Every structure is written in C-alpha cells, then in structure tokens.
Amino acid sequence: MITRSADVVIVGSGPTGSTYARIIRRDWPEARILMVEAGPKATARTGQHFDTLSDAERTAARLMAQGPRRGETYAPITREEWEARKAGKHDHSLQRRPGLFFANTDTPDEKAFAGFAAASVGGMGVQWTSGCPHPSKSERISFIDPDEMEAALQLADSLLGANKHPFPGDKGSEEMRARLGAVFNPGRPEDRKVQPMPLAYTVTEDGVITHGTDHILGEMVDEPEDMFRILPDTACRRVLHEDGRATGVELVSMNSGETWQVEAGTVVVAADSLHGPQLLYGSGIRPEALGRNINDHFLINRFLVTDIEGPLTSMSWIPRTDDAAFPFSVTIHGNDPALFPFPEKIEGTLVGMGLFVAADPRPENRIVFDEDTPDWKGLPSFSIHAPINEVDAERIENGKALAEKIAHTLGAPVDGFATTRVPTGSSLHYQGTLRMGEVDDGTSVCDRFSRVWGFENLHVAGNGVIPTVTATNPTPFIVALASIGAAKIAAERRTVARATV
Predict the structure, then answer these.
(1) How confident is the model at residue 1 (pLDDT cuts 50, 70, 90)?
(2) What is the pLDDT confidence band of residue 323, given thresholds at 50, 70 and 90?
(3) Is residue 368 helix, strand or coil?
(4) Interval 158-168: pLDDT, tens
(5) Best CA proximity match to 292, nearest among 386, 366, 362
(6) pLDDT 10s digits, 349-364
C-alpha cells in the first residue's frame, strides 16, 4: 500500500522525529502521521535499542543500519592501530564503527571531520549511549523563556525515560563522586555539582533495559497504519514546496527504486545534522546559514586506575558550568580490561573517562554540497570543512590537562596509555547546521519553533538546530526543542482542521 497523503510527514525516525510524532498525537489525536526512514527495520519491535538484543541479534542489526555499507562487516582493529591509540596517535579503526556509516565524502583520516550516521528505524535512538544530562543555563537558548525550556526538558526526561540515579547503592561510584566533589564542587550551584549521569535505563532484576525510540513512541507503535505508519527502506528525495509552503515530499523505495509523491499538510525534516541540511539543499531550500556553523564536542579520552573497589556500575558526571573556567562535560565510569581488543596487564580498578570540550560555532565551518555527485539516496553528496583554530586548540589542551587532574584525583593514569583526542566529529554530537535564531537575519535557518524561515509549515529537528556553545550530551535538549515545535504544529493545525469541519 502506497500512502499518497498525510497530515504530517516526518522524515527520519530517530529521537526527535519520534518526539514530533508523539507530541502531535498527544495534542492532535486525529492527525494522520507518516514517518519515512531510509534504512530498514532492524529489530523485531519498532525502535528497540540494539543493546537489548542478544549478541548475534545486535551484530545483525548493526549490519543492517550501515546505509550504503549495509551488510558489510568492518575489519577489526589491528595491533598497530591499538598501539597508535594507546600512544595518542590516530587510530584508523575509529573510522570503522559497526552500525554506522561514514557519510562525509572526505577521506576518513585524522584530518577529516568524522561524519558518521545511522540508517535504520529508530536512527541513532536505537544505538545511543543513553546519557540524559540537562544543558547548563548558558547552553540554553536566550530567546526561549526559561520556564518553558525547563518544562520542555522535564517532558524530554519523561519521553526518554531518563533515570537520574539508575544504580543507587553503588558504593564504589559514590566514593568516586565524593572524591571528585571535594575538588570540583566548591562554588558550583546544586545542579552543576558532581552527580550520577542520568541514563535512559530501566533497571530490572534481570539486568538493564536501554530505552530506544520505542519508549518515546509508546502506544503509537501499535496504531493502525492509516493513523501512524513508518515506511522503512524509503528515502525522501525532495521536499515539495511552493510560495513558502511545503506541499509534500517525493519518496523513493531503496529496494525497488520506485518513486512517488505524498501530499502533506506539514513536513518535519528530522534527518540528523548532516542529512537534514542535505535534504533541504537538494530540495532547493537554501537559506544562507544552511549547513554552516557546524561544530562538535571535541572528545578527549583517558584511562586511569583507582584503589576504589569495583565494580563501578554507575556513571559519574562533572557538568559544565556557566562560567568560562569549565567549558567541559566529563563522564567517568568503570571499565573492564577484558573488553580491550588486545590483552593488557592492569593493576587496580580500571576507569574510563570521556571529556567533552565545547567548540564555538563559526559560519566558515560548513558542509559543502556537490550536486554533480549523488550519494546512495540520490541526493547531493557532501564534505565537511571544519578546521581547528587557535581557540579550539587551547581548549583541547586545557581539557587534556583537566583529564590528567581527574586521573590523579581518583588514582593514577594507566601506564602506557596517553590522554588522547579522537578525530573531530567522533562524539556524534554535530550541531549548528540548522541553527535556530530569534530573527530572520541570515544567521539562522529556523525560528524558536524550529520552523524554517520563510515557510509556514516546514520544521527541522535534531542537533543541528542548537545555536549555542555546548559541551553537554544534547539528546534531552533536542527532544525538548522538538516537543516545542510539535506542540506548535498541533495547536495550529488542529485549530484549522476544526474550523473547516
């Protein structure tokens, strides 16, 4: 059955696309919603997180989610690559990430921006690491009322199923946080003190259930297809539009190559920070700021050993503060040396650290599109121009020094392992390419409701809409922003629908 019309078409099935569907359904029960996803349905339950699968099922699901490299088994890390990683040098295996594909046409090396993406029902929402921290006040958006933003973040917690303290009674992690707090808590407000990282987990007697987009969609996954339908293996080639109004979408089956059009009252492009701009560009929607200001949290990794007795089940978090002194967000958690790709002798309890470093949005850092070279979906391919400048380099070095300080606060750095910065883009938190703005002055793509400037019924979603300098995992932030945009659509469209009855 080919769907020919819908009240709302959502391009992309990840966390923000699913949020648009869920909130529109909440506020506009009669809406007919169509969601399209370029990748396949890789799990038995719609939107099920890959971590809830058996090892064999997870491997199969990842192979299905690799877009143009679907079904391709990547070569495992070599000893040479592992030694390079330990020494703080470039490890080429980091560009081979099961479950993802390299979307950037640049050569995947230490100089290229790591443009990874996923293509399966649920998008990155079935592979994410489930961190649910709230952004600091300075990371939030000045032209959105603080109370409205806080309410949206609380709603995001509910949609994601964020658990603020998933492992109470983890004595080792509590001792870790006490040591860190003695150093970092003085002078911090309560919400920025060292704390457990909130995770989208349900903890049961049988283990942990990681939440995917099935948690966001809730009962919608069982709705009749005439009310809510997800089309897998279906790419959107073009948003159809006329005189500032989106009229529908042009779709193509990734299996048969058949193309068709769907009329739509509203279109939401929730196709990630790389492919959202790509779709708008390919549709002839090209505001000046489209694809510009791309930035990603620089990611610094450090292994350390501690005398704190494990297992350290809980993840600890040192939040970013609102002053310039701490533009970092740090996660610290127990590690198992048995998971190293090659045997390493470790004395003491092994701990891993990931330190996100804020990066400034700069208009000259941008996605560059190539209309003459189509990608696997038939859209303009792209490369990413985002060199590191002096400000970035200084923050990165400060981040490395902080990682060493944290290591010595808890114990000692692991001998033979350097403090490393992984290739830019490796955090998968690309931002700014669809940035939100207060006024239509050419520096932004959309308004506070994520509605594209100059359009009355075209919205965008995902990390790309974030306009601020951030260091914090962005998932709750973008789900909150999506909920605001979705509520706006439902309020306006349902009012119109009622008036025409």
Answers:
(1) low
(2) confident
(3) strand
(4) 999 999 999 98
(5) 366
(6) 999 999 999 999 999 9
- Catalytic residue (one of 134, 241, 275, 429): 429
* pLDDT (mean) for 308-319: 92
Residues facing 460 on adjacent strands: 269
Determine the distance from the C-alpha atom of residue 249 to the mean position of all C-alpha atoms in its chain, rounded to a whole number. 24
Contact 348, 172 (CB under 8 A): no
Question: What residue type is assigned to position 197 of the chain?
Answer: M
What per-residue confidence (pLDDT) applies to 109? Answer: 83
* Long-range CB pairs of 371-377, under 8 A, 24+ apart, other chains included: 373/105, 375/68, 375/103, 375/278, 376/67, 376/68, 377/38, 377/235, 377/237, 377/252, 377/254
259-265 long-range contacts (CB < 8 A, ≥24 apart) are: 260/2, 260/4, 261/4, 262/3, 262/4, 262/5, 262/6, 262/9, 262/34, 263/4, 263/5, 263/6, 264/5, 264/6, 264/7, 264/8, 264/9, 264/34, 265/6, 265/7, 265/8, 265/457, 265/493
**Which CATH number do you get for residue 28?**
3.50.50.60
Angle between helices 15-27 and 146-160 (to 10 degrees): 100
How would residue 500 be classed by pLDDT, with cut points 50, 70 and 90?
A: very low
Q: Amino acid letter at 434? A: L
Per-residue pLDDT, averaged over 315-323, amounts to 95
Residues 29-46 pLDDT 10s = 999 999 999 999 999 999
- Which range of residues forms the domain containing residue 65? 5-500
What's 265's DSSP letter? E
Active site residue 429: yes
- Are residues 326 and 441 in contact, defined by beta-carbon separation less than 8 angstroms? no
> Which amino acid belongs to residue 159?
L
Residue type at 234 in one-letter notation: T
Tokens representing 420 are 């490393």
Q: Are strands 195-196 and 259-269 parallel, antiparallel or unpaired?
A: unpaired
Both tokens of 355, joined, read 């330190």
Express as a percent the part of the chain with pLDDT over 70. 98
Q: Are 303 and 413 in contact (CB under 8 A)?
A: yes
User: Tokens 């995001």 — which residue?
Assistant: 156
How many structural domains does the chain have? 1
Where helices occur in 319-472 by DSSP H, the ranges are 390-410
Give CA separation, 191 vs 146, 172, 187, 303, 358, in Å. 15, 22, 12, 27, 19
Q: Which residues contact 171 (CB under 8 A, 6 or more apart)?
A: 309
- The owner of tokens 């950037």 is 104
**Three-class SS state of 404:** helix
